[in-house]
Design a protein that fits this description.
Layout lengths: L10 H5 L14 H9 L18 E8 L2 E12 L4 E6 L3 E6 L2 E6 L10 E7 L3 H12 L3 E10 L3 E11 L5 E13 L2 E10 L3 H12 L3 E2 L10 H15 L3 H7 L5 E7 L3 E7 L5 E7 L4 E7 L8 E8 L6
Length: 316
Amino acid sequence: MKKAILSFSIIAALALSACGAPAAQPTISPEDSEVATVIQAPSETAPVKTARQDGERFQSVILLEGMEETVNYEHIVNPTLGFEMDYDYESLIRQSGAGFERFVSIYDDPAAPENYLDVSFDTGSAELTADAISARLSDVYDTSIEEFTLDGAGRFLRIEASVLKGTDRMADQLQAVYVIPAPDGCRVATAHYAIEAAEGFGHRFAAMMNTLTVLERNVDTTLSDELALSAIRSYCLSANPDLEEIVNAGEYPVYWEIASSDAGQIVVLYRSYTGALLRYYIDRMTGETYVTEFVPGITSEEQRTEESFNVWDYFG
């Protein structure tokens, strides 16, 4: 893992690189120097929490495409996901889910956006989470991981995914992933933007991320049986877009039920329309889940699959 401790004002310059491999030493252009005066360069001290209230609106100034722009921000506090930050409510539509916050360009189709920022949490360490995300992205991109600091959150790992794997060509769609350490794991924010919007939305998202502060998550981390059942159902429906229609049609028997439950583990049984029986073994405290499959008449016993995930990403 390549890491370099750099100030946040350099991030925009790296994100906006138009083509080819990055320079060995990042430089700060006069434009970036202006950004540094508008968006304060981070200190090496511990993050400072803001005093703003949830829903409070105010104005700030950022630099976009070489020009100062007054931005109308709204402060949000999400104790469930464990963060607070400011977002540009005039340029972005806020979408909230059980396991994420999403900020989508007002110019995009909300169901299939090109320019948006996702914020969620992960129970793994920042280093392991960053490695896992980088490995997944490396199927498409040449990725790099570097260490930076944010004004609000302090140290974080940034994954750059902009160059198509094995080429010197920039991808049409770019990603920048922020993995921020937290006492209970990490917070993960992914900025998605089209290459032509890099200097606009790419910079806008970077400015928003500089306002993020990590909070202690205010949730009951012990899963109930009902919540686990709901989360597995949501997981299955999200994995197969046609499943809900199949369930509603009632032509094939499909159901979810609690197979077993104790103080440490919940097992949810899913009977697929194919006849396969899938069991989801869920750690009641962490939400970490692995899957086994048994097909009557074909397999002699249930067999563990390569599938694993965290049910906290699917509850609600």
